[in-house]
């Protein structure tokens, strides 16, 4: 994959970075931990400008958040609450749970988007609850842009400094992203089991 990413950027230049970072947010198996360090290495070779690399990476990352954001907006809190009350019993999920989660995101959503954009494994998924909670578009874009700029800048700079060893960035961050995603999945499973147990006790 590293060779394919590098070849795409060699042929498309800055627009290759833009395209790859948009796709990365929709299709996470193409990791930013490989895209941006590779672009940083291209800047170190003198083929690109590091500042423009970071700007294009940030722009692509922000644009890539929009499909999931609008998907969340399409569902919305009200529709999701109605669905949970009708069909969420097997998940022990109710409209009240959706309301509580939405209220939490209303209070902490800006911090979640800002810092979540720098957390591999979940950075692209945060757009969905942001849309569901109807976070204002301008606020969502601002905090997404700040978090994405910090993330893209750090990765591109690492690739710039590491040179031909830029792929070491993905070797370190890749396992971390899988661990984080695994922790999220385990937490969701534990929550589901506990809710099922609590529901069983209440019925008894």
UniProtKB/TrEMBL annotation:
It is found in: Cell membrane. One of its GO terms (cellular component) is plasma membrane. It is a multi-pass membrane protein. The keyword Transmembrane applies. The keyword Cell membrane applies. It holds the Pfam family VTT_dom. Keywords: Cell membrane, Membrane, Transmembrane, Transmembrane helix. The chain crosses the membrane at residues 12-30, 50-71, 140-163, 175-193. Residues 30-160 form the VTT domain. This is Membrane protein DedA, SNARE-associated domain.
